[in-house]
Amino acid sequence: MSDNPQHLRYSKEHEWLSDAADGVATVGITEHAANALGDVVYVQLPEVGATVTAGETCGELESTKSVSDLYAPVTGEVTEVNGDVVDDPSLVNSAPFEGGWLFKVRISGTPDDLLSADEYTAFITG
Amino acid sequence: MSSTASGAPRRTALDALHRSLGATMTDFAGWDMPLRYGSEREEHLAVRTRAGLFDLSHMGEITVTGPDAPALLNHALVGDLATLAAGRARYTMICRADGGILDDLIVYRLADAEHPVYLVVANASNARTVLDALTERAAGFDAVVRDDRDAYALLAVQGPAAPGILASLTEADLDGLKYYAGLPGTVAGVPTLIARTGYTGEDGFELFVDPADAEKLWQALTEAGASAGLVPCGLSCRDTLRLEAGMPLYGNELSTALTPFDAGLGRVVKFGKEGDFVGREALAEAAERAEQNPPRVLVGLVAEGRRVPRAGYPVLADGTVIGEVTSGAPSPTLGKPIAMAYVDAAHAAPGTAGVAVDIRGGHEPFEVVALPFYKRRK
């Protein structure tokens, strides 16, 4: 069972969101999602400067068996994407909460339904 | 392999073991099967470079015996099974009267004791269909078609280290066992039908045993293979291994809508064999059609980019649809996405320029290559 870090918030689309520093938060997918995908072989991320909208797709993740949409957990402007994960998508599997982060976003809108770590754990085990 | 309520997935004799290994399970043709134990890419590479251990107990075994067993199989299948020698196996197909492929099969001629004994191995998804067709086609033959789906567990050990691993557990003459041959033996004290077959493009063995012995054999192979780097492998890597090896999968490359000639596998149809067989007339017409007005051709595609083609995606040339992807995956061996696709004959030659796959709206360039993508060095 994956251990979901307490300091993050989570979407029901299995993205995690860090605490914002100066209004900018980091986004990734959870270990649960990475395990469900299997080996990730390709990630398509939003471009720096693009605006993403909470609950809407902003990229995709390809694994051996399938392709999955990446959803933005919040609304805002993308300030940085993780070039390491573009070059080596296996980071999503090996370190989903750390080196496998996907992009950073300057938050302009946060939905009401983000989950705490305990709520997300209950959500995926329920 | 006890029977379960209809609708609930069936479980193999190794089910508890898979769960104890932390396997991710998947529903496959009504069976709850291991998809992967860890990284499917690592499992794939283990089979290419060392060895992998598979549970394939979902495959459908049917025994055909009796004095007329050879004649029945020659009537029911498109291949010539009467000339198959005892101890050998053959890849063949069963077709409808209209030539459509019902399933692709491996048929083993186990022995010629009192009567010939054949073991027909069907795909899990088609096992019932094949059983019913064989039973129906047996009318008038002095032969018995027996449902042995629950009589066997099937383990496979595949990869360059497989012969050494198996040799450490059996006295059977593996050196004398050729590709597509099988012999009865004892492995780790377990009575086993040892077959040198597989679906990975590597050397290896498929081991048919009593389900009650499956766990004992699995554990023995695991221990014997540990120093050689053998790992348990799920169906996910089995699919990418067979795709790299250019092997068709029923439901992807093969279907009732296609004859063996449409699938580029006309060689399995033996018009010269004795007696009539189901589909002969339609297949003769299909062979002529394929010669004079070639249908789409099954080709390999290798991506220039990193996006992965999937079954059903259109193949394009100059913006026009010229075919369709049947199987696609990231290839661990090539390090690029690959696919098999049926394309119009005019675009099927290796090196044909300007071919693309429509990947969710984006036209990604692909190179047309001859199959297989991967061939092991002998």
TrEMBL record, chain A:
Iron-sulfur keyword on record: no
Modified residues (N6-lipoyllysine): K65
Cofactor: (R)-lipoate
Description of how the protein assembles with itself and partners: The glycine cleavage system is composed of four proteins: P, T, L and H.
Record function comment: The glycine cleavage system catalyzes the degradation of glycine. The H protein shuttles the methylamine group of glycine from the P protein to the T protein.
PANTHER family reported for this sequence: GLYCINE CLEAVAGE SYSTEM H PROTEIN, GLYCINE CLEAVAGE SYSTEM H PROTEIN-RELATED
The name this protein goes by in its record: Glycine cleavage system H protein
Annotated source species: Streptomyces griseoaurantiacus M045
Gene that encodes it: gcvH
